[in-house]
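Database export, one record per block. Field names are fixed; values are copied verbatim from the stored entry.
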Amino acid sequence: MKTKRIYISIPITGREDTIFERNELAKKEVKELGYEYVSPIDNNDVCEEDLKNHTNLEKTAIYMGKDIEDLITCDSIYLCQGWENSRGCQIEKFVAEKFNKEILEQ
C-alpha cells in the first residue's frame, strides 16, 4: 500500500523568525498521522537570506510555482496555524480544493 503524501502549507510573512521550528513541528505532526510529507521550506532550500528577501515578487513567483507543482502531486494538504492570513497558503488551499485534495488543518 502506497503511503499518502501531504503538502505542508505554512505561513512565512510576519513569522520568519520561527519558520524553521514550525516547519519541523509540522513535519513531525504529519509523519505521526502516517503521511509522507512535502515541505516547501525544505524543497525550496529556504535559507535566512531568502527570508529577508521573501517579498521579492520574482522569487515569490518561482517559489509559488514550485509549491503548486509539489502540491498537485500530493494527496492532501496540511494547513498550518495562521494559514488564513497568508496569501500563499490561501492560494495553496484554493488549488487543493480545485484538485480535490484532502484538507487537514493543524
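Remark 1: The helical segments are 19-32, 40-43, 48-52, 57-72, 87-98.
Remark 2: The chain has a mean pLDDT of 89.
End of record.
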